[in-house]
Amino acid sequence: MLFSNNINIGIVFLCIIFFNNNAEASRCLFVSSYHQGYEWADGIEEGVKKILKNYCELKQINMNTKHFKDEAYKIQKGKEIKEFIEQWKPDVVIAADDNASKYLVVPYFLNSDIPFVFCGVNWTVAEYGYPAVNITGMIEVSPVQEIFEKIQAIIPNAKQGDYIGVDTLTEQKSFERFNKIAKRFSLMLRKRLAKTQSEWSEFYKGAQKKDFLILGTKSGIEDWNDEIAYQVVLKFGRKFSITDYEWMTQFAVLGLTKIPQEQGEWAAKSALEILNGTPPNLIPIIPNQHWDMIINDQLLSNVNVNVPEYILLNSKKVNVR
Known about the structure:
Largest sheet: 7 strands, mixed
Radius of gyration: 22 Å
Number of strands: 13
Strand order of the largest sheet: 7-6-8-9-10-12-13
Mean pLDDT: 90
CATH topology of the largest domain: Rossmann fold
CATH superfamily of the largest domain: Response regulator
Structural class: alpha/beta
Shape: elongated
CATH architecture of the largest domain: 3-Layer(aba) Sandwich
Distance between the termini: 63 Å
Helix content: 40-55%
Order of helices and strands: HEHEHEHEEHEHEHEHEEHEEHHE
C-alpha cells in the first residue's frame, strides 16, 4: 500500500511539473479595450494577473478607446495589435470588453488557429459571430431584473424613470437592455447619455421630476470630476437612485454591482485550460454569476423612501466621503 501511494504521489507531482513547465513556456496576451486607471478595466486586469502571473509569459496591450473614441483610431489600433500578435505569436489571447472583440478579434481572428478568451462583452455576443471554433468567453450582464425588482419594492407606485449614462457603445447597449426589462414592469425609461459633466449634471437635475434614476457609468466623460458630481447629487438628489457600477455607488442610493475581477479570473482560468489542451469551443460561453449589493446611507437620508429591511441587512456600506 505504501509503495502504491508513493507511485500515485509521484505521478501527480510529475503532472504538475509537466503542466507548469508547459505553461511557463507559453505566451499569454491580455488585450484591454480601455486604459489603466479605469476601475472596471483595472479589476479585470487584477483578476487576469492573479491567475496567470506564475503560469505563462504575460504581456498586456491597452487599446485606450475611452480616451480615443473616433472610429479611425479604433480600426488602426486593432490593426496594430493584429500585427503584434502575428509577430509575437501568443499561445492564447484574452480580449477584454466590446471594442477588443469588435476591432481586433472579429476582423482578424474569427475561426483562426489562435485561441481567444473574451470577457466583459456586454449582454450578447451575437453581433460578433460567437461562439466560434477558437473562441470562448464570459459575457458581462447586469442584474437588470433584480434592479427593477428592488425599484418596485422600494417605490411600489413608480411609473417612470431616467437612465443617465455616457454617450458610448457600452452605455447604448446597457440602456437598450434596461429599457426592454423596464417595459415588463410597466415602467417608462428615458435615455439620457451625456458627453460632458455639465450635461450629466443637467440630466441628473432634470431626473428629479421622475420617480427614480438608474445611473450608468461615468467613464467616457473626459472632464469628469467626482467632487463636482458628488456636490450636485448632495444638493439636488431627492429621488431614489440605483446603479450597477461599484464606482458609481458614491452617487447612488443603492448599488447592485458587477465584479470585474470575476471576469478576469474566469478568463484567465479558461486560458489555462486551453494551454493544457482543452479546445476553446469545448469551454461554454457563460454570463457572470455574482454581484454585490451596496447601500449609501448618506444619500439614503436625503430620499423619502422606505428601503425594506432585508435590503439594508444584506447590503455592504459605501465609503462615504
